[in-house]
Design a protein that fits this description.
The protein is mainly alpha-helical. Helices cover 86% and strands 0% of the residues. The protein is built from three helices and no strands. α2 packs antiparallel against α3. The protein is flat. The termini are far apart. 7% of the residues are buried.
Amino acid sequence: MMNKTTTTSNSAMIMGMLTAAKRVTNTYDNMMNHVADFYSKQLERNINRRQTLALLEAQLAFFLGIMPIDMPMALRIAFTVWTVVAVKKCKRCL
């Protein structure tokens, strides 16, 4: 009897995890669609998921590089290099 209860609770836990994963995936897809729509309106052209991710990466790299926090110069240089690479990637994508 104990084994059947354990199997049932494990099945319920797995189903709960799958439901949560599906909800996270749906939320991510919904957010990405909104961001892609925003970029499409701003750039006055259709922007796909790959282009949206490239634009977000370039913005993140730039933001992290210019944040007014105390960080080692090597890290600031790494963020600058990342920004340049990300912007070139955007240029190729767009």
